[in-house]
Structures are given as C-alpha cells and as structure tokens.
Write a structure and sequence with these properties.
The chain has about 220 residues and is α/β, with parallel strands linked by helices. Helix content is about 45%, strand content about 20%. The structure holds S-adenosylmethionine (SAM).
Length: about 220
C-alpha cells in the first residue's frame, strides 16, 4: 500500500510538472491565497476545469464557494461572449477581498459576488438558468445544495463538484475516519452515491487534485 501511495504521489508531481503557473495579477492572487492559507482550487483541477469550460463555453455560470475570487476570475476567461458568473461566499472578509480582486482584474461587469450561506442563496436563484455550476464550498453541505443545484442548472448543463475524494478519506470506512470528520465523510459518500445514481445525470468521478465529479444534466 505504501508503495502504491508513493507511486500516486509521483504521478501527481509528474502531472503538475507540466502545468504552467498563472501569469500576472491572477498568479499573484493565487500565491497570496496560498500564503494566507485560503483554500483555492489546485493547479491540476484548474486544468481539468479549463477543458470543460472550453467545451461548454458557459453563458451563465454559478459558483458555490468564491473564497478570494481566484477561481471566478480564472473561469471568467472561458465564458461565452457576454457570459456572466454568479458566485456565492459565506465569509464576509473573503467577500471583501474577492470583490477587490475582481475590480483589480476589471471583471466587475462579469462576476457578481453574493455574500451569504449558499444553502439559503440557492433558494433565491431562478430555475433552469445556469449552464455550468462549480460546487466548491463546504464539503459536508454538497448533499444539501444538491436539490437546488439541480433545479437551477439547465438540461445539458455541467456540474463540477470539487474535493469529492477528501484526500482519500472518503475511501476509508466510517469508523477509521477521525471522529470530527465522520459527518463530512458520510455526507460526501451520500453525495457521490446520489450523483452517480440519479437518472437525471451522467457523472464521472475523476481522481484529479482532491477528486472531481463531472456531471451533465440530461
Ligand atoms: C475551497 S474554498 C473555494 C475556493 C475557490 N472556489 C477557488 O478555487 O478560488 C471554499 C469556500 O467556501 C466557503 N463556504 C463554506 N461554507 C459556505 C456556505 N455555506 N455558503 C457559502 N460559502 C461557503 C468558504 O468560506 C470558502 O471560502
């Protein structure tokens, strides 16, 4: 097992060695976030997301979990012409930083940040409106966001859920997971079961970064 884990680690480093860093201000936002221990998407996740965005060219993109705006700003480069992003963040301090970063990058007409609990905010969003959703907030809440994410995403829309493998924790038995993380573990397993068994979706689970689920709404 140890040898297998090391091989996986080496594969991951090998893949990362091909990824170019973000340039300019976006690169600075990323580095600043990492320095301040703000969780932002991993470079290999970013690359996978980019390919999905280029294929889909979303017009209306919903993000759950803005943090400091890094992923929103990144994704805004791959929208259809005139496309918009709505992104939701609970933490007031992060919202301030995200808004300032968005203005710095001159993306204020493209990205709208809504401050609030995604569970509540989602209920206020219109039916069948978004053609792309990036779910990247509290992992234990994905299953609670799910009914509304399904409601607001159009038929043919893409739903990307990040961090679904929880650094491998999700593979372990409920009892071997640290007690504090058991609820998240159980809810993530329920989420994975739901998105892979719901007849309204086609889903692939991909072992990239911290695990990504790519779902297409039928
Ligand atoms: C992994 S970070 C998002 C990273 C960002 N998408 C990026 O890659 O640049 C998750 C964010 O979700 C936010 N969050 C946690 N619970 C939330 C909730 N209930 N509603 C909205 N945002 C939430 C956290 O404050 C955190 O900033």
């Amino acid at each position: 097992m140890q040898g297998q884990a090391q091989t996986m680690e080496r594969i991951s480093s090998f893949i990362k060695s091909f990824i170019k860093d973000d340039e300019g201000k976006l690169g600075q936002i990323y580095l600043e976030a990492v320095k301040n221990q703000v969780p932002v998407m991993r470079p290999e996740t970013r690359e996978l997301l980019k390919t999905q965005l280029i294929m889909k060219k979303p017009m209306q993109l919903l993000e759950i979990g803005t943090a400091v705006g890094y992923s929103s700003i990144y994704m805004s480069n791959y929208l259809a012409e005139g496309g918009k992003i709505t992104t939701v963040e609970l933490d007031e301090e992060r919202v301030k930083i995200a808004k300032s970063n968005i203005i710095d990058m001159d993306k204020q007409d493209v990205i709208e940040v809504i401050q609030g609990d995604a569970y509540e905010v989602l209920k206020t969003l219109p039916d069948n409106y978004y053609d792309f959703a990036f779910v990247d907030a509290a992992k234990g809440q994905y299953i609670n966001y799910y009914p509304d994410v399904m409601r607001v995403v159009k038929s043919g829309g893409v739903i990307i859920s990040d961090n679904v493998l929880q650094d491998g924790d999700v593979l372990e038995s409920h009892f071997t997971v640290d007690k504090r993380n058991r609820t998240i573990h159980d809810r993530m397993r329920e989420y994975l079961y739901t998105i892979t068994h719901d007849d309204r979706l086609d889903t692939a689970l991909v072992s990239v970064g911290d695990g990504v689920a790519i779902s297409i709404k039928r």
